[in-house]
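Re: that chain you flagged

S.,

Sorry for the slow reply, it's been a week of failed gels. I finally had a moment to sit down with the sequence you sent. For the record, here it is as I used it:
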Amino acid sequence: MANQNYSPAAVIIHWLIAVCIFFLFASSSWMLALPLSSDEFPFRQFPFQLHKNIGVTIALLLALLLYIRFRRPRHREARSKEMESWMNKLATVDHIVLYLLVFACCASGYIASSYSGWATTLWWTLKLPHWGRADKDLNMLYSDIHAWACWSLLGFLAAHVAGAAYHAFQNDGVARRMMRLR
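Prediction finished late last night. Pasting the structure tokens below so you have them in one place:
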């Protein structure tokens, strides 16, 4: 019989991704408001490189989370006992869309960066390949896709948090299972 709970690794990775996404959203407005890099303002590179590092790390964590989730399936009947059928379906759709949007944010950000002409060095150690030479139009296209994907992600994250809050207030066991308190 498959496990009814999420694995400890999946819970930890979930919260690492959540903290990273929160940080990226919180720092993005500030980062974009910085003056363009010049001899007088060379510091703009650090926040952008940090943003890219965290984005690539999120993509790697997401791949690991999906591997764990598919390798250790949860028992379907455990979900249906605690939630209505439509809630199960809505939760499934929300998770799938969240995974797709997180991937879209990471991929479009990386591709936009590739066309910016600026190198992406993963945690200042591993230089990641570019998708092509610097191209302002492609950089803007993927930057726009990145922005739309990120704002869409924010909307679905709000629904995700609202659903988690609902289950916490209902005290129906779903929130405890997600937090491994059961």
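What I noticed first: Helices lie at 8-33, 45-71, 76-82, 85-114, 136-170, 174-178.

Talk soon,
D.
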